[in-house]
User: What shape does this take?
Amino acid sequence: MKQKIRFLIAALCLLAFGYVSGRNRLWLGLLVILCRLLGLRRLPWLMPFTLISCFTLGPMPGFVTNHWPAWETVAAAKFDENLMAHPSLQFLSLLLRIALWLGLCRLVWMRSRGSKLLLLHAALLLLLVGLGWATTQLPTVPATMAYSLSLGFSATFFFLCYLVLEKPRPTVPEVVTLGVVPFFEASVIPRPVLDISPQPDFASLDQRCLKLTLGMVALVLFGDTLNRVMLGLPVLGYSVDLPGGPLPGLGDSGLSSNLFLVYSRTKLVLAIVWSSFYRITNHFSLFAFIEACYLLLGYDVPARFRLPLRANSFGEFYNAIMPYYVMMVNRIYLYPIFSWLRTLGWSKRRAYDVALALGLFFGGAVTHILRDVHLVPLMGSLAYLQRSLATDFLYLSVLFVAIRLLTLPPTLQRLPGPCKFLLWLLVYSFVLLCRMGGLFTDLRERLAFMARLFFGA
Assistant: This one.
């Protein structure tokens, strides 16, 4: 009886978590609970529900993209919206994606680990170029099919990289099971290990799910409520007047020197710091939701999402707020580059520094390209890649310097946890400032904004 009550409370908390975090996660949480009630826990058994989510929620269910407009808006503007949402197109797109996975796995079977990753990234580049051509040159039906295929393939690209690294000669069932990822994996960043098995005991896992979801519901509600207050938006129908007026919504306005005509430098600094903290709560809500779904299905996944209150370096802080992303960068980019440089006779220190810089650049650039691939039909492949790389260069260069060099001196390592968190949040805010506004903010305009923000020039 206690176990049933614990499951019921954990299930309700998961639904509450899905509701407050949005992005169709309430629907995904309902499917997870249904799978638990039906005893469907292993990855192959989740396939029908994954298909249902693909047919009803599109090729990227639960995903958060970096840029507006969302992929649904692009599809409505450039393609036949009804065709894009048609189950037959979604099913055909899924079959084509599985066929593409099988073909790529077959292509890289007999090659080294580094060659496998290079070939997969070359295939991704060809897909992006092909998407830009297809959406401008082909008729509506094949163009819509190419768009749907590209979205689904981009959402699972890193899963494919993990698959060829974990299983040198994957079988067809393994490719299908791991390629059609579970419906609640609403991120381009995979879990650390693809092929995992559920545990027989639910008691401790339901308890962990309950604690995780309760904490995240509180964090998301706090972040969303305070964000509305900061931006001057009503909360439950009531408006809260801040003493100095609302902060600008830099996520919507981007970076522009014209903002200094309306807001003071102090208010803009506060807006940048607040948007950085709000971004952390969004990261946590995404990956913690995935972790909670696994826990409710009986998977003993590691607990990785806690506020970094003890970080003595920016690297530790960054590892804590983005653990899955850091592991992906290490596994797919940093370690292979480091091993290759060591075979060339480079020293460990020099090879690590270069591998870290290149790993951060390629990992960050490819991740952002995958998350915003829905913009290719609007910009074209070449312009999209140029804007992405130009935007990421400054951001990832500053990120490398922060991770590699910024460490608290021994006298400051005794600071209370909240003070450390605030200090690293300020650094993180400056790092994000180098990418805030994304592809739609010109580098010259970004530098002009930063110069005026810091120097008043």
Observations:
- Residues 338 and 355 are 5 Å apart (CA to CA).
- The chain is about 70% helix and 0% strand.
- The longest helix spans residues 265-296.
